[in-house]
Amino acid sequence: MLRVAVVGSGPSGCYTAQNLVERHPDVHVDVLDRLPAPFGLVRYGVAPDHEKIKSLQGGLRTVLEHDRVRFLGGVGVGGPDGVPVERLRELYHAVVYCVGAAAGRPLGIPGEELPGSWSASEFVSWYSAHPDAADEGFLRDVRSAVVIGVGNVAVDVTRMLMRGAAELHGTDMPQAALEMLAGGGVGAVTMAGRRGPTQARFTTKELRELGRLPGVGVSVDTAELALDPGFVDLAALPAARRRNAEVLRDWAAVSPPDTGRTISLRFFLRPVQVLEADGRVGGVRFERTEPDGRGGVRGTGVFEDVPAQLVLRSVGYRGMPPQGLPSDPETGMVPHLAGRVLSDGVPVPGAYVAGWIKRGPTGVIGSNRSCAKETVTSLLEDAPALESREVPGDPLPGLRAAGADPVAWPGWLAIERAEAELGASLGRNPVKLSDWEALWAAARSE
Ligand code: NAP
Questions:
Q1: Which of 16, 165, 368, 374 is surrounded by the most beta carbons within 10 Å?
Q2: What is the pTM of this model?
Protein backbone atom coordinates (compact mmCIF):
# COMPACT_ATOMS: atom_id res chain seq x y z
CA MET A 1 0.00 0.00 0.00
CA LEU A 2 1.20 3.49 -0.91
CA ARG A 3 0.52 6.07 1.81
CA VAL A 4 0.44 9.68 0.66
CA ALA A 5 -0.22 12.89 2.57
CA VAL A 6 -1.61 15.82 0.62
CA VAL A 7 -1.13 19.06 2.53
CA GLY A 8 -3.96 21.46 1.68
CA SER A 9 -7.58 20.64 0.83
CA GLY A 10 -8.18 23.33 -1.79
CA PRO A 11 -8.65 22.58 -5.48
CA SER A 12 -5.03 21.53 -6.11
CA GLY A 13 -5.01 19.22 -3.06
CA CYS A 14 -8.34 17.62 -3.94
CA TYR A 15 -7.42 17.16 -7.61
CA THR A 16 -4.12 15.59 -6.52
CA ALA A 17 -5.93 13.15 -4.22
CA GLN A 18 -8.45 12.36 -6.98
CA ASN A 19 -5.72 11.72 -9.53
CA LEU A 20 -3.86 9.46 -7.12
CA VAL A 21 -6.85 7.22 -6.30
CA GLU A 22 -7.87 7.08 -9.95
CA ARG A 23 -4.43 5.95 -11.09
CA HIS A 24 -3.14 3.79 -8.23
CA PRO A 25 -5.39 0.94 -7.03
CA ASP A 26 -3.73 0.66 -3.64
CA VAL A 27 -2.99 4.22 -2.58
CA HIS A 28 -4.41 5.70 0.61
CA VAL A 29 -4.42 9.48 0.80
CA ASP A 30 -4.72 11.67 3.89
CA VAL A 31 -5.65 15.23 2.96
CA LEU A 32 -4.43 17.47 5.79
CA ASP A 33 -5.53 21.05 6.27
CA ARG A 34 -4.56 23.65 8.86
CA LEU A 35 -8.22 24.67 9.07
CA PRO A 36 -10.96 22.38 10.41
CA ALA A 37 -12.95 23.21 7.23
CA PRO A 38 -11.90 21.92 3.79
CA PHE A 39 -11.86 23.36 0.23
CA GLY A 40 -9.19 26.09 0.60
CA LEU A 41 -9.60 28.90 -1.88
CA VAL A 42 -13.02 27.69 -3.03
CA ARG A 43 -14.33 28.31 0.48
CA TYR A 44 -12.04 31.18 1.47
CA GLY A 45 -11.15 32.96 -1.79
CA VAL A 46 -13.86 32.63 -4.42
CA ALA A 47 -16.17 35.64 -4.06
CA PRO A 48 -19.38 34.85 -2.12
CA ASP A 49 -21.55 36.13 -4.99
CA HIS A 50 -19.91 33.76 -7.51
CA GLU A 51 -22.24 30.86 -6.75
CA LYS A 52 -21.39 28.97 -9.92
CA ILE A 53 -17.66 28.81 -9.11
CA LYS A 54 -18.49 28.06 -5.47
CA SER A 55 -20.52 25.06 -6.62
CA LEU A 56 -17.23 23.39 -7.65
CA GLN A 57 -17.11 22.55 -3.94
CA GLY A 58 -19.47 19.67 -4.74
CA GLY A 59 -16.81 17.97 -6.87
CA LEU A 60 -14.10 18.50 -4.24
CA ARG A 61 -16.43 17.05 -1.62
CA THR A 62 -16.83 13.84 -3.64
CA VAL A 63 -13.04 13.45 -3.63
CA LEU A 64 -12.80 13.87 0.15
CA GLU A 65 -15.58 11.31 0.62
CA HIS A 66 -13.76 8.65 -1.46
CA ASP A 67 -13.14 5.51 0.56
CA ARG A 68 -9.36 5.72 0.07
CA VAL A 69 -9.20 9.44 0.91
CA ARG A 70 -9.38 10.75 4.46
CA PHE A 71 -9.80 14.43 5.39
CA LEU A 72 -7.87 15.46 8.49
CA GLY A 73 -8.61 19.10 9.32
CA GLY A 74 -6.99 21.24 11.98
CA VAL A 75 -3.53 19.80 11.22
CA GLY A 76 -0.88 22.46 10.66
CA VAL A 77 2.40 21.51 9.01
CA GLY A 78 5.67 23.28 9.83
CA GLY A 79 6.00 26.33 12.07
CA PRO A 80 6.01 26.38 15.88
CA ASP A 81 2.67 24.52 16.31
CA GLY A 82 2.63 22.35 13.22
CA VAL A 83 3.76 18.82 12.48
CA PRO A 84 7.38 19.20 11.30
CA VAL A 85 7.95 18.54 7.60
CA GLU A 86 10.60 15.95 8.52
CA ARG A 87 8.13 14.07 10.77
CA LEU A 88 5.47 14.04 8.05
CA ARG A 89 8.02 12.55 5.72
CA GLU A 90 8.56 9.67 8.20
CA LEU A 91 4.82 8.98 8.48
CA TYR A 92 4.07 8.75 4.75
CA HIS A 93 5.76 7.35 1.64
CA ALA A 94 5.20 10.70 -0.07
CA VAL A 95 3.93 14.16 0.80
CA VAL A 96 2.41 16.51 -1.79
CA TYR A 97 2.31 20.15 -0.70
CA CYS A 98 -0.72 21.95 -2.15
CA VAL A 99 -0.61 24.95 0.15
CA GLY A 100 -1.39 27.70 -2.37
CA ALA A 101 -0.02 31.23 -2.20
CA ALA A 102 -1.81 32.90 0.65
CA ALA A 103 -0.01 36.19 1.27
CA GLY A 104 -0.59 39.39 -0.66
CA ARG A 105 2.52 40.66 -2.47
CA PRO A 106 3.85 43.90 -1.02
CA LEU A 107 4.04 46.99 -3.24
CA GLY A 108 7.16 48.36 -1.59
CA ILE A 109 6.01 52.00 -1.55
CA PRO A 110 5.92 54.47 1.36
CA GLY A 111 2.70 54.51 3.38
CA GLU A 112 1.79 50.96 2.47
CA GLU A 113 1.52 50.02 6.15
CA LEU A 114 -0.78 52.89 7.15
CA PRO A 115 -4.05 51.96 8.87
CA GLY A 116 -6.65 51.57 6.14
CA SER A 117 -4.19 50.09 3.61
CA TRP A 118 -4.70 46.35 3.18
CA SER A 119 -3.73 43.63 0.81
CA ALA A 120 -6.77 42.46 -1.13
CA SER A 121 -6.19 38.99 0.33
CA GLU A 122 -6.82 40.36 3.86
CA PHE A 123 -10.06 41.94 2.71
CA VAL A 124 -11.14 38.78 0.86
CA SER A 125 -10.38 36.71 3.97
CA TRP A 126 -12.60 38.99 6.04
CA TYR A 127 -15.72 38.72 3.90
CA SER A 128 -15.00 35.01 3.28
CA ALA A 129 -15.04 34.29 7.05
CA HIS A 130 -11.45 33.05 7.25
CA PRO A 131 -10.82 32.49 10.96
CA ASP A 132 -7.45 34.30 10.79
CA ALA A 133 -9.09 37.48 9.51
CA ALA A 134 -9.87 39.96 12.24
CA ASP A 135 -12.87 42.25 11.94
CA GLU A 136 -10.77 45.32 11.34
CA GLY A 137 -13.62 47.71 10.64
CA PHE A 138 -12.46 47.81 7.03
CA LEU A 139 -15.22 50.17 5.93
CA ARG A 140 -15.63 52.38 8.97
CA ASP A 141 -15.88 56.02 7.77
CA VAL A 142 -14.88 54.97 4.26
CA ARG A 143 -16.50 56.99 1.49
CA SER A 144 -14.04 56.27 -1.27
CA ALA A 145 -11.60 53.44 -1.94
CA VAL A 146 -8.67 52.83 -4.25
CA VAL A 147 -7.97 49.33 -5.55
CA ILE A 148 -4.45 48.95 -6.95
CA GLY A 149 -4.09 46.40 -9.76
CA VAL A 150 -6.36 45.31 -12.60
CA GLY A 151 -6.58 41.52 -12.24
CA ASN A 152 -9.61 39.39 -11.36
CA VAL A 153 -9.02 39.76 -7.62
CA ALA A 154 -9.14 43.56 -8.04
CA VAL A 155 -12.44 43.14 -9.89
CA ASP A 156 -13.75 40.85 -7.11
CA VAL A 157 -13.00 43.29 -4.29
CA THR A 158 -14.29 46.26 -6.30
CA ARG A 159 -17.54 44.43 -6.96
CA MET A 160 -17.94 43.37 -3.33
CA LEU A 161 -17.46 46.99 -2.22
CA MET A 162 -20.34 48.02 -4.45
CA ARG A 163 -22.80 45.17 -3.97
CA GLY A 164 -26.09 45.99 -2.23
CA ALA A 165 -27.88 44.32 0.67
CA ALA A 166 -30.36 42.43 -1.49
CA GLU A 167 -27.56 40.83 -3.53
CA LEU A 168 -25.46 39.87 -0.49
CA HIS A 169 -28.30 38.48 1.59
CA GLY A 170 -28.30 35.08 -0.12
CA THR A 171 -24.52 34.56 0.22
CA ASP A 172 -22.76 32.71 3.03
CA MET A 173 -20.75 35.73 4.20
CA PRO A 174 -20.62 36.54 7.94
CA GLN A 175 -23.41 38.80 9.16
CA ALA A 176 -21.00 41.53 10.32
CA ALA A 177 -19.34 41.71 6.89
CA LEU A 178 -22.72 41.70 5.16
CA GLU A 179 -24.01 44.58 7.26
CA MET A 180 -20.88 46.62 6.69
CA LEU A 181 -20.71 46.00 2.94
CA ALA A 182 -24.43 46.46 2.43
CA GLY A 183 -24.36 49.75 4.35
CA GLY A 184 -23.71 51.56 1.09
CA GLY A 185 -21.27 54.03 2.64
CA VAL A 186 -18.68 53.60 -0.10
CA GLY A 187 -19.68 55.91 -2.94
CA ALA A 188 -16.59 55.73 -5.12
CA VAL A 189 -14.07 53.03 -5.99
CA THR A 190 -11.11 53.77 -8.23
CA MET A 191 -9.42 50.70 -9.70
CA ALA A 192 -6.06 51.57 -11.21
CA GLY A 193 -3.65 49.74 -13.53
CA ARG A 194 -0.06 50.79 -14.06
CA ARG A 195 -0.13 49.71 -17.71
CA GLY A 196 -2.72 50.12 -20.45
CA PRO A 197 -6.26 48.76 -20.70
CA THR A 198 -5.28 46.14 -23.29
CA GLN A 199 -2.70 44.79 -20.81
CA ALA A 200 -5.12 44.42 -17.93
CA ARG A 201 -5.27 40.91 -16.46
CA PHE A 202 -8.99 40.72 -15.71
CA THR A 203 -11.19 38.52 -17.87
CA THR A 204 -14.13 39.91 -19.81
CA LYS A 205 -16.81 37.94 -18.00
CA GLU A 206 -15.63 39.35 -14.67
CA LEU A 207 -15.17 42.86 -16.09
CA ARG A 208 -18.73 42.94 -17.48
CA GLU A 209 -20.16 42.14 -14.04
CA LEU A 210 -19.04 45.59 -12.85
CA GLY A 211 -21.42 47.12 -15.35
CA ARG A 212 -24.37 45.10 -14.07
CA LEU A 213 -24.31 46.22 -10.44
CA PRO A 214 -27.66 47.79 -9.59
CA GLY A 215 -27.41 51.54 -8.95
CA VAL A 216 -23.68 51.70 -9.75
CA GLY A 217 -22.15 53.62 -12.67
CA VAL A 218 -18.85 52.73 -14.34
CA SER A 219 -16.62 55.51 -15.58
CA VAL A 220 -13.78 55.07 -18.08
CA ASP A 221 -11.67 57.94 -19.41
CA THR A 222 -11.51 58.00 -23.22
CA ALA A 223 -8.20 59.88 -23.07
CA GLU A 224 -6.61 57.03 -21.08
CA LEU A 225 -7.83 54.46 -23.59
CA ALA A 226 -6.37 56.57 -26.37
CA LEU A 227 -2.92 56.40 -24.75
CA ASP A 228 -2.88 52.64 -25.39
CA PRO A 229 -1.42 51.72 -28.81
CA GLY A 230 -3.67 48.63 -28.75
CA PHE A 231 -6.71 50.88 -29.20
CA VAL A 232 -5.58 52.01 -32.65
CA ASP A 233 -6.86 48.76 -34.15
CA LEU A 234 -8.89 46.60 -31.77
CA ALA A 235 -9.37 43.93 -34.45
CA ALA A 236 -5.62 43.23 -34.34
CA LEU A 237 -5.70 42.31 -30.64
CA PRO A 238 -5.88 38.72 -29.35
CA ALA A 239 -9.56 37.83 -28.72
CA ALA A 240 -9.48 38.06 -24.90
CA ARG A 241 -7.88 41.51 -24.93
CA ARG A 242 -10.12 42.72 -27.73
CA ARG A 243 -13.24 41.77 -25.77
CA ASN A 244 -11.98 43.67 -22.69
CA ALA A 245 -11.16 46.68 -24.87
CA GLU A 246 -14.63 46.67 -26.44
CA VAL A 247 -16.33 46.65 -23.03
CA LEU A 248 -14.14 49.54 -21.85
CA ARG A 249 -14.68 51.51 -25.07
CA ASP A 250 -18.47 51.14 -24.70
CA TRP A 251 -18.35 52.37 -21.12
CA ALA A 252 -16.14 55.31 -22.06
CA ALA A 253 -18.67 56.37 -24.71
CA VAL A 254 -21.37 57.20 -22.16
CA SER A 255 -21.40 59.20 -18.94
CA PRO A 256 -22.25 57.01 -15.94
CA PRO A 257 -25.67 57.70 -14.37
CA ASP A 258 -25.54 60.04 -11.38
CA THR A 259 -26.40 57.50 -8.68
CA GLY A 260 -23.81 58.61 -6.14
CA ARG A 261 -22.04 55.25 -6.52
CA THR A 262 -19.33 55.05 -9.16
CA ILE A 263 -16.53 52.69 -10.14
CA SER A 264 -13.74 54.48 -12.03
CA LEU A 265 -11.45 52.29 -14.09
CA ARG A 266 -8.15 54.10 -14.53
CA PHE A 267 -5.03 53.17 -16.50
CA PHE A 268 -1.40 54.25 -16.92
CA LEU A 269 -1.20 55.14 -13.21
CA ARG A 270 1.67 53.73 -11.15
CA PRO A 271 1.27 53.94 -7.36
CA VAL A 272 4.21 55.72 -5.75
CA GLN A 273 2.92 56.49 -2.25
CA VAL A 274 0.00 55.79 0.03
CA LEU A 275 -0.84 59.20 1.46
CA GLU A 276 -1.59 59.86 5.11
CA ALA A 277 -4.38 61.96 6.63
CA ASP A 278 -5.02 62.09 10.38
CA GLY A 279 -2.81 59.08 11.04
CA ARG A 280 -4.43 56.81 8.48
CA VAL A 281 -4.87 56.41 4.75
CA GLY A 282 -5.89 59.60 2.98
CA GLY A 283 -5.32 58.61 -0.63
CA VAL A 284 -2.82 57.30 -3.16
CA ARG A 285 -0.28 59.28 -5.15
CA PHE A 286 0.13 57.91 -8.65
CA GLU A 287 2.65 58.75 -11.32
CA ARG A 288 1.20 58.97 -14.80
CA THR A 289 2.93 56.43 -17.07
CA GLU A 290 3.17 56.02 -20.82
CA PRO A 291 3.90 53.02 -23.05
CA ASP A 292 7.60 52.32 -23.52
CA GLY A 293 7.06 50.52 -26.83
CA ARG A 294 8.13 47.15 -25.40
CA GLY A 295 4.93 46.20 -23.54
CA GLY A 296 5.99 48.04 -20.40
CA VAL A 297 5.58 51.61 -19.23
CA ARG A 298 7.81 54.46 -18.10
CA GLY A 299 7.10 57.28 -15.69
CA THR A 300 6.32 60.77 -17.01
CA GLY A 301 7.08 62.77 -13.87
CA VAL A 302 3.44 63.86 -13.71
CA PHE A 303 1.64 62.92 -10.49
CA GLU A 304 -1.99 62.59 -9.49
CA ASP A 305 -3.44 62.15 -6.00
CA VAL A 306 -6.64 60.13 -5.63
CA PRO A 307 -8.31 60.61 -2.23
CA ALA A 308 -9.43 57.45 -0.40
CA GLN A 309 -9.98 56.22 3.14
CA LEU A 310 -9.40 52.60 2.10
CA VAL A 311 -6.64 51.22 -0.11
CA LEU A 312 -6.69 47.61 -1.28
CA ARG A 313 -3.47 46.38 -2.85
CA SER A 314 -4.39 43.70 -5.37
CA VAL A 315 -1.07 43.04 -7.06
CA GLY A 316 -0.77 39.26 -6.82
CA TYR A 317 0.16 36.73 -4.17
CA ARG A 318 3.25 35.26 -2.49
CA GLY A 319 3.72 31.66 -1.44
CA MET A 320 4.20 30.82 2.24
CA PRO A 321 5.45 27.22 2.18
CA PRO A 322 5.79 25.29 5.45
CA GLN A 323 9.07 25.80 7.25
CA GLY A 324 11.49 23.12 6.14
CA LEU A 325 10.68 23.28 2.42
CA PRO A 326 13.02 25.11 0.03
CA SER A 327 11.51 28.23 -1.53
CA ASP A 328 12.36 31.22 -3.69
CA PRO A 329 12.92 34.21 -1.36
CA GLU A 330 11.24 36.62 -3.78
CA THR A 331 8.07 34.73 -4.73
CA GLY A 332 7.78 32.14 -1.95
CA MET A 333 7.33 29.45 -4.64
CA VAL A 334 8.86 26.01 -4.12
CA PRO A 335 11.41 25.04 -6.81
CA HIS A 336 10.41 21.82 -8.55
CA LEU A 337 10.88 19.62 -11.59
CA ALA A 338 7.54 18.32 -12.88
CA GLY A 339 6.22 18.54 -9.31
CA ARG A 340 9.28 16.99 -7.58
CA VAL A 341 10.56 19.41 -4.92
CA LEU A 342 14.14 20.48 -5.63
CA SER A 343 16.69 21.49 -3.03
CA ASP A 344 19.81 23.03 -4.58
CA GLY A 345 18.64 21.52 -7.86
CA VAL A 346 18.36 17.97 -6.47
CA PRO A 347 14.99 16.22 -5.91
CA VAL A 348 14.02 15.84 -2.25
CA PRO A 349 12.89 12.19 -1.95
CA GLY A 350 9.16 11.84 -1.37
CA ALA A 351 8.37 15.59 -1.50
CA TYR A 352 6.12 17.06 -4.21
CA VAL A 353 4.16 20.22 -4.95
CA ALA A 354 1.03 21.08 -6.92
CA GLY A 355 -1.11 24.18 -7.43
CA TRP A 356 -0.12 27.81 -6.83
CA ILE A 357 2.87 26.93 -4.60
CA LYS A 358 4.25 25.07 -7.64
CA ARG A 359 3.37 27.23 -10.63
CA GLY A 360 2.62 30.63 -9.07
CA PRO A 361 -0.69 32.44 -8.47
CA THR A 362 -2.13 32.18 -11.96
CA GLY A 363 -4.91 30.42 -13.82
CA VAL A 364 -8.44 29.38 -12.96
CA ILE A 365 -9.52 26.57 -10.63
CA GLY A 366 -9.59 24.07 -13.51
CA SER A 367 -5.88 24.77 -14.22
CA ASN A 368 -5.14 22.75 -11.09
CA ARG A 369 -6.31 19.53 -12.74
CA SER A 370 -3.47 19.31 -15.28
CA CYS A 371 -1.02 20.67 -12.71
CA ALA A 372 -1.99 17.92 -10.22
CA LYS A 373 -1.82 15.30 -12.95
CA GLU A 374 1.77 16.21 -13.81
CA THR A 375 2.80 15.96 -10.15
CA VAL A 376 1.01 12.63 -9.66
CA THR A 377 2.72 11.25 -12.78
CA SER A 378 6.10 12.05 -11.21
CA LEU A 379 5.04 10.58 -7.87
CA LEU A 380 3.79 7.34 -9.43
CA GLU A 381 7.03 6.99 -11.42
CA ASP A 382 8.88 7.20 -8.11
CA ALA A 383 6.38 4.97 -6.25
CA PRO A 384 8.32 1.67 -6.41
CA ALA A 385 11.31 3.27 -4.69
CA LEU A 386 9.13 5.21 -2.24
CA GLU A 387 7.13 2.14 -1.21
CA SER A 388 10.26 0.21 -0.29
CA ARG A 389 10.58 2.41 2.82
CA GLU A 390 8.68 1.24 5.93
CA VAL A 391 6.05 3.66 7.23
CA PRO A 392 3.53 3.20 10.06
CA GLY A 393 0.36 1.26 9.17
CA ASP A 394 -1.70 4.25 10.26
CA PRO A 395 -0.08 7.69 10.49
CA LEU A 396 -2.79 9.02 12.85
CA PRO A 397 -1.04 8.10 16.14
CA GLY A 398 2.15 9.66 14.79
CA LEU A 399 0.29 12.86 13.89
CA ARG A 400 -1.26 12.97 17.36
CA ALA A 401 2.13 12.39 18.99
CA ALA A 402 3.41 15.39 16.99
CA GLY A 403 0.73 17.57 18.62
CA ALA A 404 -2.05 17.41 16.02
CA ASP A 405 -5.67 16.82 17.02
CA PRO A 406 -7.31 16.14 13.65
CA VAL A 407 -10.88 16.95 12.74
CA ALA A 408 -12.15 14.11 10.58
CA TRP A 409 -15.00 14.25 8.05
CA PRO A 410 -17.83 13.97 10.62
CA GLY A 411 -16.34 17.04 12.35
CA TRP A 412 -16.60 18.98 9.10
CA LEU A 413 -20.19 17.80 8.63
CA ALA A 414 -20.94 19.14 12.12
CA ILE A 415 -19.50 22.53 11.07
CA GLU A 416 -21.79 22.48 8.04
CA ARG A 417 -24.79 21.78 10.27
CA ALA A 418 -23.82 24.62 12.61
CA GLU A 419 -23.54 26.98 9.63
CA ALA A 420 -26.99 25.97 8.41
CA GLU A 421 -28.39 26.60 11.90
CA LEU A 422 -26.68 29.99 12.12
CA GLY A 423 -28.09 30.96 8.73
CA ALA A 424 -31.59 29.84 9.71
CA SER A 425 -31.43 31.88 12.91
CA LEU A 426 -30.65 34.95 10.78
CA GLY A 427 -33.28 34.20 8.15
CA ARG A 428 -30.52 33.44 5.65
CA ASN A 429 -29.01 30.51 3.78
CA PRO A 430 -26.08 28.83 5.60
CA VAL A 431 -23.72 31.46 7.03
CA LYS A 432 -20.06 30.62 7.57
CA LEU A 433 -18.61 30.46 11.07
CA SER A 434 -15.90 33.09 11.14
CA ASP A 435 -13.80 32.41 14.22
CA TRP A 436 -11.62 29.60 15.48
CA GLU A 437 -13.61 29.02 18.67
CA ALA A 438 -16.90 28.55 16.81
CA LEU A 439 -15.30 26.25 14.24
CA TRP A 440 -13.65 24.09 16.89
CA ALA A 441 -16.78 23.98 19.05
CA ALA A 442 -18.89 22.85 16.10
CA ALA A 443 -16.30 20.31 14.93
CA ARG A 444 -15.99 18.78 18.40
CA SER A 445 -19.76 18.63 18.89
CA GLU A 446 -20.21 15.60 16.66
P1 NAP B 1 -3.04 39.03 -11.51
O2 NAP B 1 -4.04 38.55 -12.49
O3 NAP B 1 -1.64 38.60 -11.68
O4 NAP B 1 -3.11 40.65 -11.50
C5 NAP B 1 -2.22 41.40 -10.73
C6 NAP B 1 -2.35 42.86 -11.07
O7 NAP B 1 -1.46 43.58 -10.22
C8 NAP B 1 -1.96 43.21 -12.50
O9 NAP B 1 -2.81 44.22 -12.98
C10 NAP B 1 -0.53 43.75 -12.32
O11 NAP B 1 -0.13 44.67 -13.30
C12 NAP B 1 -0.68 44.48 -11.02
N13 NAP B 1 0.60 44.74 -10.36
C14 NAP B 1 1.57 43.86 -10.02
N15 NAP B 1 2.59 44.49 -9.41
C16 NAP B 1 2.24 45.80 -9.36
C17 NAP B 1 2.87 46.96 -8.87
N18 NAP B 1 4.08 46.91 -8.26
N19 NAP B 1 2.24 48.15 -8.99
C20 NAP B 1 1.03 48.23 -9.58
N21 NAP B 1 0.39 47.17 -10.09
C22 NAP B 1 0.99 45.97 -9.99
O23 NAP B 1 -3.41 38.58 -10.02
P24 NAP B 1 -4.78 38.43 -9.22
O25 NAP B 1 -5.78 39.44 -9.62
O26 NAP B 1 -4.35 38.37 -7.81
O27 NAP B 1 -5.32 37.00 -9.66
C28 NAP B 1 -4.57 35.80 -9.39
C29 NAP B 1 -5.14 34.66 -10.24
O30 NAP B 1 -6.42 34.28 -9.74
C31 NAP B 1 -5.33 35.04 -11.70
O32 NAP B 1 -5.00 33.94 -12.50
C33 NAP B 1 -6.80 35.33 -11.76
O34 NAP B 1 -7.38 35.23 -13.05
C35 NAP B 1 -7.36 34.29 -10.81
N36 NAP B 1 -8.69 34.70 -10.32
C37 NAP B 1 -9.77 34.33 -11.06
C38 NAP B 1 -11.03 34.73 -10.68
C39 NAP B 1 -12.21 34.33 -11.52
O40 NAP B 1 -12.06 33.53 -12.42
N41 NAP B 1 -13.39 34.85 -11.28
C42 NAP B 1 -11.22 35.52 -9.53
C43 NAP B 1 -10.10 35.89 -8.79
C44 NAP B 1 -8.83 35.47 -9.20
P45 NAP B 1 0.94 44.24 -14.48
O46 NAP B 1 0.15 43.40 -15.42
O47 NAP B 1 1.38 45.53 -15.02
O48 NAP B 1 2.03 43.44 -13.77
A1: 16
A2: 0.96
